[in-house]
Amino acid sequence: MRSFAIDDPAYPAPLRRLPRPPAAVCIEGALPALQVRVAVFGSRTPTHDALAFARTLASAVTQSGGVVVSGLGYGIEAAAQRGAIGAGAPSLVVHATGSDHLFPADQTDLARQLRDAGSASLWPFPPPLRALRCNFRARNGVVVALADVVVIVQAGVGSASRDAARWARQLGRPLWVVPPAPWAIEGFEGSLDELNRGALPLLSPGQFLVALGLTPGTASPERPVRRENHNENMVLSCLGSCPLHVDQIVEQTGLTTGEVATALLTLSMEDVLVEASAGCFRLPVKHPAT
User: Fold this and answer.
1) Confidence at residue 219, expressed as pLDDT on a 0 to 100 scale
2) How far is CA 9 from the centre of its chain?
3) Which of 89, 115, 130, 234 could form a disulfide bond with 253, CB atoms 3.0-4.6 angstroms apart?
4) Is the peptide bond prior to 46 cis by the omega test (within 30 degrees of 0)?
5) Contacts of 285 (CB under 8 A, 6+ apart)
6) Mean pLDDT, to the nearest integer, of 218-236?
7) Which of 20-34, 60-74, 141-155, 236-250 has the highest mean pLDDT?
8) CA–CA separation, 66 vs 220, rounded Å?
9) CA-to-CA distance for 217 and 202, rounded, in angstroms?
10) Are the C-beta atoms of 42 and 22 separated by less than 8 Å?
């Protein structure tokens, strides 16, 4: 885990667009680069169908080469993270506490599974800070700032997800909202209001992926089995279907050039990754059977 002050060149640049960017952030793992980042929000007490859709959507996004950005909250957020885990792809987790706390406190198993999958975690608050109600608006802003597009799966009356919609409008991020079935409006009042305000209707994962320029099910990197060597896992966690130069890998992992070079040599010799061009590496890409 590393801490980056706002004047550090490695500080996530999108966060500087916030009205009040975090003075410093703690990051564990490597932030995904050159991939479409999809922020997923929704009710903590969703319907069964909304829960299943969130998981399916997150799986489809990751299998198509995108990255899910969300928190660890109950309901939709946890479902999206589990969808990414089920697809065998890392996600990005943004916490609402300092790095020495977990919220919700009983999400330790999910947090462990995400670490095992190579997901990155970001804490925009100082380490002593516990979860406070006022933290979540700031955390939602960080999630939206880090994303390319925002999705609300379900939002009821007064839902905190509406806050994410306001951030999307403020930061100029496209906002997609899943419409409810006509016979199941209860619990989706906020979703309907956002659609009436001009949010794009997300009718199916396939439609959404095509709109983002992703090919459903074809751009998913072949995720290797987690390795015992820490440096190799760090290198793998920042690689996807898009090639990264060695210098970018060094910057994202925080490892030295020598440590990265050693890990890349081992992984290349074992065909775990592909050298796309001189000094640029990516994961192998699997294609669906025809």
Assistant:
1) 47
2) 22
3) 234
4) no
5) 219, 220, 221, 222, 241
6) 68
7) 141-155
8) 8
9) 18
10) no
* Residue 216 pLDDT: 72
Q: At what angle do helices 257-269 and 246-253 cross, to 10 degrees?
A: 120
Q: Greater confidence, 277 or 121?
A: 121
Token pair of 262, please?
Answer: 């050693």
Q: Residue 141: what pLDDT? A: 94
Amino acid at 21: P
Residue 155 has pLDDT above 50, yes or no: yes
Amino acid 288: pLDDT: 44
**Across the chain, what does the average pLDDT equal?**
85
Q: What token pair was written down for 261?
A: 């070079």
Name which of 59-63, 93-97, 181-185 the model is least confident about. 181-185
Q: Which of left, alpha, beta for 2 (phi over 0: left; psi -120 to 50: alpha)?
A: beta
**Domains of the chain (ranges plus CATH)?**
2-211 (3.40.50.450), 230-282 (1.10.10.10)
